[in-house]
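hey can u check if this looks right to u? its 203 residues, i copy pasted from the old doc so theres a chance i mangled smth
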Amino acid sequence: LRIRKKVLSEMHPDTAESLNNLAGVLEDQGKYYDAELLYRKGLFICEQIVGKVHPSTAALINNLAFVLKSQSQYEEAEQLYRQSVDISEKVVGETHLNTAKALNNLAMILVRQGKPNEVECLYRRALKIKQQLFDENNPEIAFSMNNLANFLKMQGEDHEAIWLYEQAYEKCRVSIGENHPDTQLYLKNWQHLLQEMNGALGK
């Protein structure tokens, strides 16, 4: 990083990339505040050099939002995730995988804050995008189905939730195998809700 600063000056895309990479290392070590400072510096550089509506800017915004979420700074993280969605829709389009991931991140931070109003719509949009992009058994589709099911279960919509859990499990069983951790997670979610529903019927 020091070498890049000397050779390229601080206001250069490669410097922002180095800051992002170093912040990622700190993030992996659980040093979220230190990572936050570097992500903020990298984001400032990126916005000045390539602009606010750019894939590199969106990536840094997303990374910064994650470390803020990890520090329970949910309000700012939410605003950043909203920016990420907006940039992704403008740069890569409304039906791109990056947009689906941005929608998912926004939905998750809203759930964390107890703001359910937009969540179902966001998860369904993300799922629809992935269904258009991938074959029916792709793990990305299963991931979005599981997220939507988790939310619907929270809302008491058990019948659709259990169907989604079953679909997520079956898709992963076919694509990545019965013993994969994701497959086992979706199976556990499905079985747990099934037991809850059967228990409720038995009362």
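The longest helix spans residues 181-202.
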